[in-house]
Write a structure and sequence with these properties.
Blueprint: H1 19-29, H2 48-56, H3 84-88, E1 100-106, H4 110-122, E2 131-137, H5 144-151, E3 156-159, H6 169-175, E4 180-185, E5 188-189, H7 194-205, E6 209-216, E7 219-223, H8 224-227, E8 239-243, H9 244-250, H10 262-272, E9 277-287, H11 297-314, H12 317-337, H13 345-357, H14 365-374, H15 388-393, H16 398-414, E10 425-427
Parallel strand pairs: 1-2, 1-4, 2-3, 6-9
Antiparallel strand pairs: 4-8, 5-9, 6-7, 6-8, 9-10
C-alpha cells in the first residue's frame, strides 16, 4: 500500500568519528543486543560471502534484534523471512548490483519515517535480494519503534537508549552488511530507480562518498543545495551514499558533535584518506522539510562551535587560526547586519576550538589548505564585502545592494568551480 505523504516536519540530524569512537557509540546503542558476534563487527570481509548468501535467499534479520537467531528466521514481528517480490516490487534480475544497506536515523517523526520507509522498501526499484533496510531509533517517544516493527517487520530495528543526535547513525553503520550504505534522515528518500543509478555511478567512479541534490517535498523545483551550497567539501546529511571501505577507514560520525557540521568533519576525513567524493546533481533526494530562509540563532551558534572544533581538530595550526579568526569576524559582521545574537558565535567558536585541540588528529596539509581557501563558512566576511565604490553607487538603492551581494557570492563560487560544480563532478585530494 502506498502511504500518503505526511506534513512538513520540524528539524533535522547528523554525524560521528574514528574507529574507536565508532565502536564505542555502537556498543552504547547495542548493549542489549544478543546474537552472533560478527553482526556488530566492523571487519566484515571474512563473512561477506555468508552475508551475500543470506541476502540472495531473501532472508533478513529484523526488528529489535533481541533474541535473534543466526538463521534470521522467526515470526513476523521479530525476524523472519522477507519476500523478494513483495518487498520491492521486483525480482533479483540485476545480480551484478552490490548489496546496499539503507540506514535511517529516526527521532519523533513517525509518520514521515513510515512514508520514507514505504518509498525505499516498496518502491526503490533496487533488487530486494540486494537490499537491507535498518532503522536506528534515537529514543523516540512518539511510538516510532513500535510502528516500524508493526508495519515493516522485515526492517532491522535498533533502539538507542538515549538520543545521540547524528552519531546515532553509527549503530546502524556497525550492523550494516552492504558494500554501500545509504544514509537517510527519517524524513528523506530517493525516487524509484535512483538508488541503482547512484550505486552504478559510485562503482564506475570508485567513489567513497556520493552526494546528490536535495529538494523540499513542498517545492521540488528548488534544490535546497542552492540555499546552502556544500559543494564537494561537504554534503547534505539527510541523504548520501558511503562505501563500506570508506566507513571502515574513517569510522563514522564524530560522537562529540550532536548535530550540524558533522558532514564537514566526515568529508574532510574521507578526503584525507584519499577517497573520492562524487556529486550527482541530477539525482534529487526528497526531504520532507520546508526551506530554511530565516536566521536561526541556535543553528548559527552550534555551527560556529562545531566549525571551530573541526578547525582545531583537523587543520594545520596556521589554517586553523585563520579559520577561527574568519568565523569570529563573520560573527561580528552578522551581529550588525543580521541579528545581534550572532555575536555569541565569537565565544562559541573559541569553545569549539578548545575542545577540538584536545582531540587533534590533523589531516594532510593539502586537505587543510583546500578547506581554508575554498569552504565558504571558513572564508570570513571579506570575499563577500562590497567595495567602497560599490557602496557609493548603490546608496539608498536596495535592489542594487542585493545585486552587488549576489554578484560577490557568484564570483566566489565560480572562482572555485572545482569545489562547487554545477554538473556531475568529483573531488579527490
Amino acid at each position: 500500500m502506498l502511504l500518503k505523504p505526511p506534513g512538513t516536519p520540524p528539524d533535522a540530524r547528523q554525524e560521528l568519528y574514528n574507529r574507536t569512537a565508532f565502536e564505542r557509540a555502537a556498543s552504547l546503542s547495542l548493549t542489549a543486543l544478543q546474537g552472533p558476534p560478527w553482526v556488530c563487527s566492523l571487519e566484515r570481509d571474512r563473512t561477506a560471502e555468508c552475508v551475500r548468501r543470506d541476502l540472495r535467499s531473501g532472508v533478513m534479520t529484523t526488528a529489535s534484534e533481541h533474541g535473534r537467531s543466526e538463521s534470521g528466521t522467526g515470526d513476523a514481528g521479530q525476524g523472519g523471512d522477507i519476500s523478494v517480490e513483495a518487498a520491492n516490487g521486483g525480482s533479483d534480475t540485476e545480480a551484478e548490483l552490490p548489496v546496499v544497506s539503507v540506514v535511517f536515523l529516526a527521532y519523533n517523526r513517525r509518520d514521515e519515517l513510515l512514508y520514507a520507509l514505504d518509498q525505499m522498501v516498496g518502491h526503490s526499484g533496487y533488487p530486494a535480494a540486494r537490499l537491507e533496510v535498518l532503522v536506528v531509533d534515537n529514543a523516540s517517544d512518539d511510538g516510532t519503534a513500535g510502528a516500524v516493527a508493526e508495519r515493516f517487520p522485515s526492517v532491522r530495528l535498533v533502539r538507542n537508549e538515549r538520543n545521540l543526535g547524528a552519531p546515532g547513525w553509527n549503530a546502524g553503520f556497525a550492523l550494516a552488511r552492504g558494500d554501500y550504505v545509504l544514509i537517510l534522515d527519517d524524513d528523506a528518500y530517493l525516487r524509484p530507480g535512483d538508488l541503482a543509478r547512484v550505486v552504478r555511478a559510485a562503482e564506475a567512479e570508485q567513489a567513497g562518498l556520493v552526494s546528490f541534490s536535495v529538494v523540499s517535498s513542498s517545492d521540488e523545483e528548488h534544490p535546497l543545495n542552492v540555499d546552502w551550497r556544500t559543494g564537494l567539501l561537504s554534503y547534505w546529511g539527510c541523504a548520501a551514499l558511503l562505501s563500506r571501505h570508506a566507513l571502515q577507514a574513517v569510522g563514522g560520525y564524530d560522537p562529540n558533535m550532536f548535530i550540524w557540521a558533522n558532514e564537514v568533519d566526515l568529508t574532510m576525513r574521507l578526503l584525507d584518506h584519499g577517497f573520492r567524493h562524487l556529486h550527482i546533481p541530477e539525482i534529487r533526494a526528497v526531504h520532507m522539510k520546508a526551506r530554511i530562509v530565516e536566521f536561526e540563532p541556535r543553528r548559527y551558534l552550534v555551527n560556529a562551535r562545531h566549525h571551530g572544533y573541526i578547525a582545531a581538530k583537523l587543520m594545520t595550526p596556521v589554517d586553523a587560526a585563520a579559520v577561527v579568526l574568519n568565523i569570529m569576524q563573520q560573527a561580528m559582521v552578522d551581529a550588525v547586519l543580521v541579528n545581534r545574537v550572532a555575536l555569541g558565535a565569537v565565544m562559541e567558536v573559541l569553545a569549539g576550538c578548545r575542545a577540538g585541540a584536545r582531540r587533534r588528529t590533523p589531516v594532510r596539509p593539502i586537505v587543510s589548505g583546500a578547506y581554508r581557501r575554498n569552504f565558504h563558512p571558513f572564508a570570513g566576511p571579506w570575499p563577500f564585502t562590497r567595495s567602497l565604490r560599490e557602496r557609493l553607487r548603490s546608496r539608498r538603492d536596495k535592489a542594487a545592494v542585493e545585486a552587488q551581494r549576489s554578484n560577490r557570492y557568484t564570483s566566489y563560487y565560480s572562482e572555485r568551480a572545482r569545489y562547487y560544480p554545477t554538473q556531475r563532478a568529483s573531488l579527490q585530494l
